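Quick one:
INPUT:
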């Protein structure tokens, strides 16, 4: 039989067939490395030993070589004919037999067995699994630059989840000062960055689990953390900052325009390359990966400031490409293969063939309907290898955007496979304060990983079921669907916003700005509030048994509180736009107290998973809102008294 109903596996394997019969794992059995050459997969064998101990309370010894008097529970053997990431599992009367094409593949087999043992116990049905991934590189990128710098134990927890999801690449996105550059202590001395030593240990932890820790540091745009400092400001394309063109921001959020701090390097200043070289020499030695993601996305200012004459003469695209190639030379001299975000070069398709063939383009997009197909075709026609890079849709959302996440990850996987992407990178950003809590991102981690392994068999993957059983160990089996539902409150807003939700935007906007709130009707707010309150009422039903169960519950409650406060804020804005005489000072005072409670819980939760540096920046817009509340309350009190 080949029915998926036999076993609930995620990622679901390429081929699974079952026949009648049951193998019972013997209590006196051994885990056997069939030949001396199999000693290289000792980590996978020891992991299986630990899995069996936890799932079955059996402590099975490891044995090297086959002997007549050794009872085999499970045996590992290398098969040169298998692709490097492929494995097979065969279960019959003789036991469990794993063949593998590499150390990583042996560990993937253990990951699959972990789920089978969790569902079947000692009695395993006779079956045959052949499995290998659709995408050679299956990665996760965590934003550690937008305020939240995870504690090392948080990073290790994420790596453990990645191992269970058969992901094999981790990137920690760096802009500004989340890393302790040894040549620039003044840049990070007031922060709590990740140190080189911590990267060394994390790199080792990842490698043992078959995960490549790829350095990721933006190197062209997104350099505000450096270019706003007096000692580096002269290296900016527009040192004084600039106003974003109208078509590049949401006018409902920024009715008076959007001013941007200097964030893009001046491409012709030789000091820039010297600075980048020093930063690279501080960062790269701590990584064993042969790859390096240099960013180079959203270089808004190119051709608008110091390089305007050059751009007028040769074109903005050529200015961008020229500097990109200089960065590539820096990277090549340090023995790395360069990755870069492809959003700028894709605007100049005639220049793509000029890219070196040993560079990797990272094709990103976060909307459910992003034109991955159109963009990837351009890279493929030019012979440029590329990754496809969707996202979790968690950022700027408070509690997620589930349907957009599902559509974006699915769209990227289907077209990425069809057009020959060499990698699939799930991105998890932290724009505008990184207000979303980590569990909000888990559904995207799970679904993205399933698709990256095998697109065809995981389009309808049971995300909720996996979250219930494997991530949160929820005896009620309800948290998975609750998370997905929680991430769909945005569908009650006035319209779908690009990479944003209106509730998040309201909390970031000035209190007196009523353009956005005017798009939301009282009826929509009532429906949204009813929806989110219904989800809140389901929280007591959860029965989590994961290590961080209590923390997860508080994080979900705090995320819901964010949304509820935003709804009340929108109602207050409606009153401000209509007739302020109807607003009572005590109404605003209640809003202040509610925000204080929200912030109190948020601060407590922050330090459970993250370092303290960045917290004050994260809450700065909420503190500004509190100040605006207080000013309004005082004004109303003065009016009432006068």
């Amino acid at each position: 039989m080949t029915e998926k109903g036999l076993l609930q596996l995620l990622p679901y394997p390429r081929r699974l067939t079952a026949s009648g019969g049951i193998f019972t794992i013997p209590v006196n059995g051994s885990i056997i490395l069939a030949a001396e050459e199999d000693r290289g997969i000792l980590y996978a064998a020891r992991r299986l030993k630990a899995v069996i101990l936890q799932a079955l309370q059996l402590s099975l010894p490891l044995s090297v070589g086959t002997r007549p008097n050794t009872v085999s529970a499970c045996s590992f053997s290398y098969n040169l004919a298998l692709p490097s990431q492929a494995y097979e599992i065969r279960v019959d009367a003789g036991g469990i037999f794993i063949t593998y094409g590499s150390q990583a593949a042996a560990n993937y087999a253990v990951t699959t067995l972990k789920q089978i043992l969790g569902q079947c116990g000692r009695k395993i049905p006779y079956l045959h699994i052949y499995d290998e991934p659709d995408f050679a590189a299956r990665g996760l990128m965590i934003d550690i630059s937008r305020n939240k710098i995870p504690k090392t134990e948080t990073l290790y927890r994420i790596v453990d989840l990645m191992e269970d999801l058969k992901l094999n690449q981790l990137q920690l996105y760096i802009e500004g000062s989340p890393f302790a550059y040894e040549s620039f202590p003044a840049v990070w001395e007031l922060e709590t960055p990740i140190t080189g030593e911590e990267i060394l240990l994390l790199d080792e932890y990842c490698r043992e689990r078959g995960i490549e820790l790829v350095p990721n540091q933006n190197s062209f745009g997104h350099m505000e953390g450096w270019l706003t400092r007096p000692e580096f400001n002269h290296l900016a394309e527009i040192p004084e900052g600039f106003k974003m063109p109208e078509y590049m921001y949401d006018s409902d959020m920024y009715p008076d325009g959007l001013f941007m701090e200097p964030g893009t390097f001046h491409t012709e200043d030789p000091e820039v390359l010297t600075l980048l070289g020093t930063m690279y020499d501080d960062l790269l030695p701590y990584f064993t990966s042969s790859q390096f993601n240099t960013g180079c996305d959203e270089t808004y200012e190119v051709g608008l400031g110091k390089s305007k004459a050059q751009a007028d003469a040769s074109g903005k695209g050529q200015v961008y490409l020229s500097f990109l190639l200089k960065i590539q030379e820096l990277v090549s001299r340090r023995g790395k293969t360069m990755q870069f975000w492809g959003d700028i070069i894709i605007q100049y398709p005639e220049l793509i063939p000029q890219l070196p063939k040993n560079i990797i383009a990272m094709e990103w997009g976060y909307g459910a309907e992003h034109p991955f197909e159109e963009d990837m075709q351009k890279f493929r026609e030019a012979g440029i290898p590329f990754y496809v890079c969707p996202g979790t849709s968690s950022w700027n959302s408070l509690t997620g955007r589930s349907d957009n996440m599902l559509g974006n990850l699915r769209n990227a996987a289907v077209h990425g496979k069809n057009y020959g992407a060499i990698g699939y990178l799930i991105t998890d950003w932290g724009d505008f304060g990184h207000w979303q809590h980590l569990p909000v991102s888990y559904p995207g981690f799970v679904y993205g990983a399933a698709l990256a392994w095998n697109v065809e068999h995981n389009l309808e993957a049971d995300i909720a079921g996996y979250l219930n059983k494997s991530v949160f160990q929820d005896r009620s089996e309800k948290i998975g669907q609750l998370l997905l539902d929680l991430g769909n409150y945005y569908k009650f807003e006035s319209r779908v916003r690009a990479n944003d939700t209106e509730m998040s935007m309201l909390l970031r906007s000035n209190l007196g700005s009523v353009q956005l709130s005017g798009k939301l009707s009282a009826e929509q707010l009532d429906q949204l509030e009813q929806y989110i309150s219904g989800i809140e009422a389901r929280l007591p039903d959860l029965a989590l048994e994961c290590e961080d169960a209590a923390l997860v519950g508080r994080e979900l409650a705090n995320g819901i509180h964010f949304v509820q406060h935003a709804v009340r804020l929108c109602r207050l804005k409606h009153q401000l736009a209509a007739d302020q005489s109807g607003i009572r000072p005590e109404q605003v005072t209640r809003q202040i107290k509610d925000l204080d409670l929200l912030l109190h819980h948020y601060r407590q939760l922050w330090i459970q998973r993250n370092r303290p540096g960045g917290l004050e920046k994260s809450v700065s817009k909420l503190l500004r809102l509190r100040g605006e509340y207080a000013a309004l309350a005082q004004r109303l009190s003065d009016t009432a008294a006068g």
